[in-house]
Write a sequence for this structure.
């Protein structure tokens, strides 16, 4: 999917919501546990109930790898289901990968080619040659960690390096990498005041924003400081939507939560 | 496996060699491609031919994920084979993971509990709460990226932060994390001169050292500056050993290459 197509979807749906498919078998409705592939059945129901309210789904690979072979199979089935039934959706493999060049190429192929996700998240610590293999894929996107939403973000990301915080250097440096136009960035919603400065460095890039809802960030605040003329934001919510209920009505309740966010987004976009 | 058991194995085998099982189907002997699980068959032959010369095997997960479900199955079979047949081997899942707390817990369970690796590699960018879930596992080890062997290491890892390079701050800070005694660090062999300073910060920690061989680092140099009284090094070689030949004699040739390194290590340990 091209960036332009993503922007069109956002305008059409009046939504820049991304739903995180972080499926934990201990949290899903018990009646699904009797099915052959509970994770996929859960995802399928959530997707069918919410696809018109969001522009993106983001399975976090950890939650699939935790179930070994069966988990990997559920991930494959989930991405195939989205790609076949809802090809207008922007898909994100939240994998936070990064390794030396030939190894990053293997990861890039796994997620962007074989599984055919539109994008994958990567970690910046190993630098340019660990990320460029991901950037080489046409009409695919690489979403690099900049400023994350967890407490540990303050351990290294905000350290002063050459007169500015590390995450700013990460943003600035990466812009100049080969195919840097294929970069988006992860910026946590718990730090809305940082968005003003981030937008000075990457005015046009899409920012994937976790931390709204369960992690405590405010949508209005993030939009106030982080939005650009193409919206430029993908706001992720995982637990707040997918675990809204663990009864038979889980998909319906998930839709209700997604709708609340979509309505809030529509209002923000109309202003 | 405890650190003490690893040290005993090193003394017994006169080796601190780690063999990287980074299996690429385009590089393995063609006769294996006719078997049901070429990756596992390749690993099994390499392991049987080299297990007495090394103390550790390190499959890089990228090379398995690149083959989807089948790849994950090969990884499972490989780690099970090592754990059953050669339980004295220290196993490393080279995964370079790291995410917010609840997600890191899922990765930690996947690699340290379900697959039952002795250790897993992680990235430091997201800080303390992204790594501590891995450290919580008893008699398991978390190998954190400090200074890597690729060119991109100079993008961020060597930036000045508060008067010292970032990788040194990473080493220093992480020592104080909960269960920090379960940490080891990745330090690239291409930068032997850095080991003196690294040893001032982490005198007792084990260092996993990639970059000997194919990536150009020198074993003698690394040992000169990086060894401590318990050796404290795991020297990794992947391509130099496993792709020594792509004929019928691949395992035999891999053994020859591993033996060269083991002999060199034995000489260094004897001095």
């Amino acid at each position: 999917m091209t960036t332009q197509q993503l922007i069109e979807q956002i305008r059409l749906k009046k939504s820049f919501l991304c739903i995180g498919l972080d499926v934990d078998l201990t949290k899903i409705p018990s009646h699904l546990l009797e099915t052959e592939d509970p994770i996929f059945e859960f995802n399928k129901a959530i997707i069918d109930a919410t696809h018109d309210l969001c522009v993106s789904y983001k399975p976090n690979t950890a939650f699939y790898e935790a179930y070994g072979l069966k988990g990997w199979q559920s991930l494959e089935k989930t991405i195939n289901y989205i790609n076949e039934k809802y090809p207008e959706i922007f898909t994100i493999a939240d994998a936070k990968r990064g390794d030396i060049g030939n190894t990053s190429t293997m990861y890039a192929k796994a997620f962007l080619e074989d599984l055919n996700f539109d994008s994958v998240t990567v970690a910046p610590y190993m630098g340019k040659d660990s990320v460029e293999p991901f950037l080489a894929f046409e009409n695919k996107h690489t979403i690099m960690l900049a400023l994350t939403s967890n407490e540990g973000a303050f351990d290294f990301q905000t350290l002063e390096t050459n007169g500015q915080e590390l995450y700013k250097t990460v943003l600035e440096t990466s812009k100049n990498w080969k195919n840097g136009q294929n970069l988006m960035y992860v910026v946590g919603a718990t730090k809305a005041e940082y968005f003003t400065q981030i937008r000075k460095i990457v005015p046009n890039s899409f920012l994937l924003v976790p931390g709204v809802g369960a992690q405590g960030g405010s949508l209005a605040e993030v939009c106030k400081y982080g939005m650009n003329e193409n919206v430029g934001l993908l706001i992720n919510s995982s637990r707040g939507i997918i675990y809204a209920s663990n009864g038979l009505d889980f998909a319906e309740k998930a839709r209700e939560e997604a709708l609340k966010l979509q309505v809030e987004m529509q209002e923000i976009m109309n202003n």
Notes: The domain at 3-188+203-270 of chain A is CATH 3.20.20.70 (TIM Barrel). Residues 250-270 of chain A form the longest helix (21 residues).
